[in-house]
Each structure stands twice: as structure tokens, then as C-alpha cells.
From TrEMBL:
The keyword Aminoacyl-tRNA synthetase does not apply. It is found in: Cytoplasm. The keyword Transport does not apply. It comes from Streptacidiphilus fuscans. One of its GO terms (biological process) is methylation. It is an enzyme of class 2 (transferase). Keywords: Cytoplasm, Methyltransferase, S-adenosyl-L-methionine, Transferase. Belongs to the methyltransferase superfamily. L-isoaspartyl/D-aspartyl protein methyltransferase family. Its EC number is 2.1.1.77. Pfam families: PCMT. The lineage of its organism: Bacteria, Bacillati, Actinomycetota, Actinomycetes, Kitasatosporales. This is Protein-L-isoaspartate O-methyltransferase. Signal peptide: none annotated. One of its GO terms (molecular function) is protein-L-isoaspartate (D-aspartate) O-methyltransferase activity.
Length: 393
């Protein structure tokens, strides 16, 4: 095919990224030197900029122009489904590896604030593009990247070698970091986490930075930028909304309804009440995120009906077996609620939502985390505006 990289592709995308502020002048030389297309496989499922949907397969050998246009669009590109078990050209069940949206790639690199001479640990090599950008900026010797999926790692290594880069590439569980290479000045994760692995803090020098997509169990996700202190704790704010694939070892198995109702027909002994808070109000990405910060150990599902009504199911994950339902119907001003178990989950969600609303619905960048680590686990304390202003239930 005709090489159009220097015509319509990279310059146009670079202009858009610089206009949005995500690509800064210090990263522009790396963008120009490391073409995204050299790290994108022939088969991709283009995503959308404002969601998690995927479009049909685009094959480089079948439609090279469509492939190139997708590569140089500001969208994520799914490159693997179902941990590599997907067959055929259709959509798989769950995307499990991708080339991230360029806006997110360069925004996170800006958050990382890595400078010459700094040593960076990357969790999630993926296609290798982000790793190559770091290697170009910092030098091969200063970049270590860990990928769990062996085939994804092989493909990334081949792409990096072909492009002329040779950072340290490891296959393994990214939660453990790379103790033999520690301490690092910067750690960046290209997968979502719900719990910050203690090794990431232990292996980051005091004053070092950790950048990672952080999602609550309830829902929503944002990039967090943490600075490691002399005391071994890490603290910092969220910087922007995100929607990354979960770190494989932190994926959650969410039981179906019968695990809570035990075969007893709903309302299964639950207590019926009403609320004037629409379940729909709690469903935005940011609302879910804030609720998740204040209501740990809970998740939701929606049971939808043909007329647009739905039942919001809430479930506990703390072993109490608590659950709740809230019924949404368009045009209503009150909504039926049923709750069961020692936790009144709808009451918790409603209180968290009202807490947020009473403060003017603060944006995600006003929230932050303080994370303290032991050898085995981390303790996360969320806060609003200042680490001293912790969120309490």
C-alpha cells in the first residue's frame, strides 16, 4: 500500500492532539519518531472516543485505507478478545488487549512527567507503542515493561525490535512489579486497577510518581496520579476520566441474582420502601465513581424492560448477602425500593449520591487517594480537595 504516514495520518492526528492539549511539545518528537501503525496488528476492531463500544473488524490486507484511517484516528483499537480465545472476525465477548486512544496515551505520559535519566516501570506492554514512546524519550536502558499475556508480549517484542527499540521486556504478573530493577522514578499502568499493588509503592523511590487508571467496584474510573512520600505512603489526585481493561488478576466474578435470593421469588423477604431519588440519577460515570468511593463492597446490574423501565439491582460483595432493588419508570416522581440483609444498600447509595449533590457535584479532579502499603496489601483512603478531608460513610 502507499505510505501516507507523512501526508494525512500522523500530522493530522498530531495537530488534533496538540490542539486538545494532550500532546505537548516535549512529547512531539517521540510521537513523530514512533508511528502508531508500527505497533498495530493487521486485524483491529476500532472503538469510539466517548465510550467502550467496538466497531466491526478492519483488516489491513482487505481495506488498507480504512485500517490506516482507524490507526490515525483518536480512538482505541481492540487487538485481542477473550484472552486470545476468540475465533473469527466478529466481536468477541470481552476485549482483553488494545492500542489505547492517543489522547489518553499522551495525557497519561504528561501526568507521568518523566524526564531524561528517569527510570520507568510500565505495567501492561500491550502493543508496545507506549513502551516505544518511553524508550525513545528516556532511552532503552531506563524502561522496563511487564506483560502478563505471553502472545501479546511476543507481538510487542517483535514490534519494538522492528522499530529499533530494546527496553527490558518481561512476561509475568505485573502486580509484583520488578524488584530486581527497583527503585523506579515512575510507574505507569495501562490497565485498570481496583486495588493498588503494594509492590508498586515499595518499588517507587520517595518523590516518585505512580500513574494508573483506578476504578471502584461499584463503577466509574479515573486516572490517579500518586506521589510516593518519605513515609512510604502514596497520595494524589485524579486527573481525568478513563475506561481501561482491568488488570487480569483483579477481574471480579459477579454472582447472578440467585446467589443472593437462593431460589426464593423476589421480593424474597426484603423490606419495601419508596424513594424520590431516581435510579437514573445514580448512573452517570462520575456518579458511579463517587458512589463507589463512599460505598465499598457493592456493585450493580440493571434488568431492562421493553418500555424503557428497568430495575436497578444492588449487591454486596462483603459476604453479608445484602441486596436491594430500585425500580425506574419514566415520568414517576417516586420509585419502589426493596432491601434485604444487614446492609441497606439503596440507603447507602442514596446517601452517597446526596452527599455528592449537596457539595455541588464536584468533578473527579477534586477527589484523590492516599494509599498506605504493607507487604501483603494496601489501604486506600479517598478524599475530597485535601488529604485531610477524607470521605466517610
Amino acid at each position: 500500500m502507499t505510505d501516507t504516514r507523512n501526508e494525512a495520518g500522523p500530522p493530522r492526528l498530531a495537530s488534533a492532539l496538540m490542539a486538545s492539549g494532550s500532546l505537548t511539545t516535549d512529547w512531539l518528537p517521540s510521537y513523530q519518531a514512533v508511528p502508531r501503525e508500527e505497533f498495530v496488528p493487521d486485524r483491529i476492531w476500532p472503538g469510539v472516543a466517548d465510550g467502550t463500544r467496538q466497531n466491526p473488524l478492519v483488516h489491513r490486507n482487505v481495506d488498507p485505507q480504512a485500517w490506516l484511517e482507524a490507526v490515525y484516528s483518536d480512538i482505541p483499537l481492540t487487538t485481542q478478545w477473550d484472552d486470545g480465545n476468540h475465533q473469527g472476525d466478529g466481536l468477541g465477548t470481552a476485549p482483553t488487549s488494545s492500542s489505547s486512544m492517543p489522547t489518553m496515551v499522551f495525557s497519561m505520559l504528561a501526568d507521568l512527567d518523566a524526564d531524561a535519566g528517569m527510570r520507568v516501570l510500565e505495567i501492561g506492554t500491550g502493543t508496545g507503542w507506549n513502551c516505544a514512546l518511553l524508550a525513545h524519550r528516556l532511552g532503552d536502558a531506563n524502561v522496563t515493561s511487564i506483560e502478563y499475556d505471553a502472545q501479546v508480549a511476543r507481538d510487542a517484542r517483535a514490534a519494538l525490535t522492528s522499530a529499533g527499540y530494546s527496553p527490558t521486556l518481561l512476561v509475568g504478573d505485573g502486580r509484583a512489579g520488578h524488584p530486581l530493577g527497583a527503585p523506579f522514578d515512575r510507574v505507569i499502568a495501562t490497565c485498570s486497577i481496583g486495588t493498588l499493588p503494594p509492590a508498586w509503592i515499595e518499588q517507587t523511590r520517595p518523590g516518585g510518581v505512580i500513574v494508573a487508571p483506578y476504578g471502584t467496584e461499584y463503577g466509574g474510573e479515573n486516572i490517579v496520579r500518586l506521589v510516593v512520600g518519605d513515609d512510604g505512603a502514596a497520595s494524589g489526585r485524579f486527573t481525568r476520566s478513563s475506561a481501561f481493561m482491568r488488570l487480569r488478576q483483579q477481574r471480579t466474578e459477579r454472582p447472578l441474582v440467585d446467589a443472593y435470593l437462593h431460589g426464593v421469588p423476589w421480593p424474597a423477604g426484603g423490606t419495601a420502601t419508596e424513594t424520590d431519588l431516581s435510579p437514573a440519577a445514580t448512573g452517570s460515570w462520575l456518579a458511579q465513581f463517587v458512589i463507589g468511593l463512599r460505598v465499598p463492597g457493592a456493585f450493580w446490574r440493571a434488568e431492562r424492560y421493553d418500555d424503557g423501565a428497568y430495575t436497578l439491582w444492588l449487591y454486596s460483595t462483603d459476604g453479608t448477602g445484602s441486596w436491594a432493588t430500585a425500580d425506574y419508570e419514566k415520568g414517576r416522581s417516586t420509585y419502589a425500593v426493596v432491601q434485604f440483609g444487614p446492609r441497606r444498600l439503596w440507603d447507602e447509595v442514596e446517601a452517597a449520591y446526596h452527599w455528592w449533590a449537596q457539595r455541588g457535584e464536584p468533578s473527579a479532579d477534586r477527589f484523590g487517594l492516599t494509599v498506605t502499603a504493607t507487604r501483603e496489601s494496601t489501604t486506600v483512603t479517598p478524599w475530597l480537595d485535601d488529604p485531610a478531608n477524607t470521605l466517610t460513610a
